[in-house]
Amino acid sequence: MEKAVILKRGKEESLQRFHPWIFSGAIQRIEGKPEEGDVVTVYTNDHKFIARGHVQVGSIAVRVLTFNDEPIDQTFWNRRIATAYDLRERTGISSREDNNTYRLVHGEGDNLPGLIVDIYGDTAVMQAHSVGMHVCRMEIAKAMQEVLGDKLKNIYYKSDTTLPYKADINKDNGYLLGGNAGNISTEYGLKFHIDWLRGQKTGFFVDQRENRSLLEKYAKGRKLLNMFCYTGGFSIYALRGGAEIVHSVDSSSKAIDLTNANVEINFPGDARHTAYAEDAFDFLDRMGNNYNLIILDPPAFAKHRDSLRNALIGYRRLNAKAIEKIQPGGILFTFSCSQVVSKENFRTAVFTAAAMAKRNVRILHQLTQPADHPVSIYHPEGEYLKGLVLYVE
């Protein structure tokens, strides 16, 4: 018997607009007893084909892979990975001589919901955010080998923290291809140690590449504070941009060790840089007005909609403290990577923070994620990264 999802009457409208999620409340019945992660065919209430995708437990019951009546086989995976790679080739990010770090697959933005793949040199780090993508990991790995050829020597699968915690599957991380790879990659001519074995996400925040490059243009002669520095990406760009001093702060001593290692590999013995393993709010409370360029790039304050209110309070508090203490003529780069925090939510929080600090503030840039993190026009929820560059008088 075919594994199928039958929708309630009228619930196909979002799919007719090519939105890739089917919520559990839209389903009339499920046929064929599919297990979590299986491919199911989706029909309207009058049994017309409308989509095919991975079924899962939770409010998002199906993640749509295709709106065409086609099999989800090796040819399908090869074609989707080839399309994703072609976009990176056409935008130039995968073929630059000074860069071998980029995102190859960005979930819904590449019509592969639940899948993330980042490229670090000749290593791909794959993350499944759905059981369906976990089940298909070997077919996806084979497709990447087919498309990237000799450019790909290692595939590391890292999904222990991203798969549903109740799913009854083996979540062990490990190499699907190769192994014992070197962990240094290049981003716009700068070198970074990438800890894909134990680091956050896939080991590096690839999504801030263009924003780091912009910061470099503002760094010359400035005294910079990089809050929530993680592995020091913004700090390294600031040093190359000619910053007078660069201070990196993160609550994780391991992150500080990686930051110092990344400074050393690019600017050995550079006395302009100092790193602190300290809570961000504690550091801001005691720092004085020593800086005229500050970066606020915190982890997601809200991962679920029920935590939105507290997240916005956190953004207001954090930005108010930075705006209050930055020197006159200072520049603030401030970000939110919480998907449930909209651009309007974030701007309002920052505007409120400026009013609380009683400073005159102007917007220089409005920032988002780069082209290798594309947003499907049918899935605006994929635009998760928001940033503002502010001039504080």
Structural summary, described in words:
This protein has 393 residues and is an alpha/beta fold. It has 3 domains: 4-66, PUA domain (Archaeosine Trna-guanine Transglycosylase, Chain: A, domain 4), CATH 2.30.130.10; 74-183, RNA methyltransferase domain (HRMD) like (Transcription Regulator spoIIAA, 2-Layer Sandwich), CATH 3.30.750.80; 205-392, Vaccinia Virus protein VP39 (Rossmann fold), CATH 3.40.50. It is built from 10 helices and 20 strands. The protein has helices at 13-16, 74-90, 131-135, 137-148, 209-218, 233-240, 253-266, 280-286, 308-325, 343-357, and strands at 4-7, 21-23, 27-31, 39-43, 49-55, 60-66, 101-106, 115-120, 123-128, 154-157, 174-177, 184-187, 190-193, 223-227, 245-250, 273-277, 293-296, 330-336, 361-367, 386-392. The protein has a 7-stranded mixed beta sheet, sandwiched between helices. A 6-stranded mixed beta sheet has the order 2-6-5-4-1-3. Helix 7 (253-266) links the parallel strand 15 (245-250) and strand 16. Helix 5 (209-218) packs parallel to helix 6. 44% of the residues are buried.
Assembly state of the chains shown = single chain
- Span between termini: 68 Å
Secondary-structure class: alpha/beta
Spatial order of the strands forming the largest sheet:
16-15-14-17-18-20-19
Nearest-integer average pLDDT: 94
Number of helices: 10
Feature tags:
393 residues; alpha/beta; Transcription Regulator spoIIAA; Rossmann fold; 3 domains; 7-stranded mixed β-sheet; 10 helices
